[in-house]
Amino acid sequence: MKAIAINGSPRKGWNTEMMLESALKGAVDAGAEVEMVQLYDLQFTGCKSCFACKRKGAEPCKCFLKDDASPLLDKILTANTVFFGTPIYFGEITSQMHALLERLSFILMTYDDYSRKLFQGKVDCGCFYTMNMLHEGYETMYATRMKESFKVLQKLNGTVMDYACCDTLQFNDYSKYQTASFDIKHKYQVRAEQFPKDIEAAYQIGRNLCKKA
Ligand SMILES: Cc1cc2nc3c(=O)[nH]c(=O)nc-3n(C[C@H](O)[C@H](O)[C@H](O)COP(=O)(O)O)c2cc1C
């Protein structure tokens, strides 16, 4: 059983990766072989409209662009479980994560019949979003948008779970940055009290998704 995590944050070792690491720990405890992929270490763009995947007789669900995303797309489609992690940037997923999902979306659709499911396998997915926003703000402003951004995962025929990790710590030492609009005491308190619960929730999602697989 194979589980991969894709870190869509440029900051290694920070909130998003910590959530993903915890999901992978859960996956290991459920018996999976795991791998962390750092999206910002890869050289790739969004779809370049080469249409190689739309040629008659082309292998389905395959991207033919020669860059680092194509092997990652193969990896996603052959894994049992994939965890996607992204910080929210200006109300959206990060640009690298968007580029990857654009590539995934195009290889999973055919102009012959938009409603046809090309992918015959099954991949369970967990999506983790991290953000400054409080949880209530996430629900009203971001939740629908996040689901929409990752809706391509429904074409992978598995379970899709998501989790919002809110009010994250952005700096270890807020006194060094221009952060007058933050309640810094509150930020450290959330880190101490809520973040461990978020990490535990990620672990449970990782374990449960892999137990199912
Ligand atoms: C360029 C940029 C834009 C951001 N935009 C938002 C935003 O629109 N809403 C929000 O809640 N947080 C926003 N944030 C905060 C990050 O989403 C948050 O700190 C996140 O947990 C960072 O993840 P990381 O620690 O894994 O890098 C932004 C951060 C950056 C650097």
CATH architecture: 3-Layer(aba) Sandwich
Broad CATH class: Alpha Beta
Strand content: 15-25%
CATH topology: Rossmann fold
Characterization of this structure:
It is a single chain. The chain is an alpha/beta fold and 213 residues long. It has a single domain (2-212), classed as Rossmann fold, CATH 3.40.50.360. Helices cover 38% and strands 17% of the residues. The chain has helices at residues 15-29, 69-78, 95-107, 135-149, 184-193, 195-212; strands at residues 2-7, 33-38, 81-87, 123-130, 157-165. A five-stranded parallel sheet has the order 2-1-3-4-5, sandwiched between helices. β3 (81-87), α3 (95-107) and β4 form a beta-alpha-beta unit. The radius of gyration is 18 Å and the shape is globular. The N and C termini lie close together (8 Å). The model has no long low-confidence stretch (mean pLDDT 97).
Note the main attributes of this structure.
213 residues, binds flavin mononucleotide, Rossmann fold, 5 strands, globular, alpha/beta
Please give the structural blueprint:
Elements: E1 2-7, H1 15-29, E2 33-38, H2 69-78, E3 81-87, H3 95-107, E4 123-130, H4 135-149, E5 157-165, H5 184-193, H6 195-212
Parallel strand pairs: 1-2, 1-3, 3-4, 4-5
The structure holds flavin mononucleotide.
